[in-house]
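Our platform keeps sequence and structure together, in a single record for each protein. Such a record has a labelled line for the sequence and another for the backbone structure tokens. The tokens are whole numbers drawn from a learned vocabulary of local backbone shapes. The remainder of this section carries one protein's record, kept here as part of the documentation:
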Amino acid sequence: MELGQLRHFHAVVVHGKVGEAARAEGIAQPALTQSVRRLERDLGCTLLERAGRGVRVTEAGLLFDRRIAGALEQIDAARDEVRRFAAGEERTVRVSIGAASGLMAEAIAAFLAERSDGRFEIRHFDREARCDVRSLTRAAGPGPGACATRAVFTERIMAALPAQMHDRLAAEGRLRAGAIPAAELAGAPFLTMSSSVGFRGVCDAACARAGFAPSIACESDNPATVERMISLGLGVGFWPEHSWGAVGESCRLVPVADEGFARDIVVELREPAHDEARAFYDCACRTLAAAFGED
């Protein structure tokens, strides 16, 4: 007994004529007749019998149809639900965010403004996680090859200083053409992002190349908190030039004179990619390019 046989017989019951049932099922009339006959052989009873030029459903056939009609309806509903789910899956963009979270949120907002039916699944960065688009941070420079389409946006890592400290260093001539030597930061209390944040790792590595390890006074997982404490004169820190936005009037961003104080924001499109993921990747790249002044 096959599902097609059940559908063919039920179509005859619904339409009352074999020819109309065949047209509804999209098959030739002889093929439908043979399908019903095979079903009768499987059941060992007659479901349809001749009545003049047409057919009549037997009592056994009516009983059988009452039993299968609900099941066929449920199967059709399940099929339609799965198809809708699959179509939605094809439109869902899975985004893994490990850097420039504010800019990635702006990219999602811009994308949804253009495509109100867009769907997103967001998660914190996980190198092994299934995703369509992801953002990550790394030390500036050539990175390893991958099977992904990627765009790289490079920004300087600025020293974030309390305004009074900046003005004092400038008055004492300890800034070089407006930039601060890394050695000037060596003994200061540092207010930093958590060590679990990729930006922190890039900063620590840059300091190590400059010959010192930052003296950590406080860690936070919120850039706004770091900026606030620096503005209050509680220490110094690092701030990416573009991706975290501007700071308040009581905080000054100063380039670091030493080499290596820069990072790459990498946006990756994992292949193979569906159309919605590819469209969002393009939107994310446009958003970062605008923020980095690369229009």
